[in-house]
Amino acid sequence: MSDGKPPRHVVLVGFMGTGKSTVSRRLAELLACGTCDVDAEIVKREGEEIAAIFAGRGEREFRAAETEALRAVLGAEDALVVATGGGAVLSPINRELMLRRGFVVALTADPEQVIARVSQDPDRPLLQGDVRRRVYQLLEDRKGVYDFAHLTIDTTSLSVDEVVERIAQAISRFRTSQHSI
């Protein structure tokens, strides 16, 4: 962190279907802080659903709205657990914002587990058509983009509580190391 202080927020990144929204709510309960889903913030700010933004304005406009929403959320004074959309990490600006203002946790999962989790969700505009092919293609396209995170957890065979506990332990270690510098 550029100011030498521990980060205010915990930012969850990862591909769709890795558990960001579910984990964020449970982690916020444990940490006794607020939570914010960046996709929900975009919908609130833009006045339309994610799929409608993609369809009507395109991915580029959606990504611009995503950066503005992320900037606003991470500018909050009170600590938050922030669940980002799966593609939020595609922007170098977004990655920099996350690292500067949060402890970043990347959630991963086996591709077949992701497919099982997202295949019945009609609100995934990037998965129109052959879900299996799209998931594998997007995972290949995004290989390495989550590597900037402070912590990576594979959620494939973990319960939500196990994921939350691992994050809480890592945050504690991170904050301790930040204070000792």
From TrEMBL:
Location(s) in or outside the cell: Cytoplasm
Residues the entry annotates as binding Mg(2+): 21
Species this protein is from: Paenibacillus artemisiicola
Residues reported in the UniProt entry to bind substrate: 39, 63, 86, 142
Statement: the UniProt record of this protein carries the keyword Protease: no
Tree of life domain: Bacteria
Pathway info: Metabolic intermediate biosynthesis; chorismate biosynthesis; chorismate from D-erythrose 4-phosphate and phosphoenolpyruvate: step 5/7
Similarity comment: family membership: Belongs to the shikimate kinase family.
Coarse class of the protein's main subcellular location: cytoplasm
Top-rank EC class of the record's enzyme: transferase
HAMAP family: Shikimate_kinase
Binding site for ATP: 17-22, 124
InterPro entries in alphabetical order: P-loop_NTPase (IPR027417), Shikimate/glucono_kinase (IPR031322), Shikimate_kinase/TSH1 (IPR000623), Shikimate_kinase_CS (IPR023000)
Name the record gives this protein: Shikimate kinase
Cofactor(s) listed in the protein's UniProt record: Mg(2+)
E.C. number: 2.7.1.71
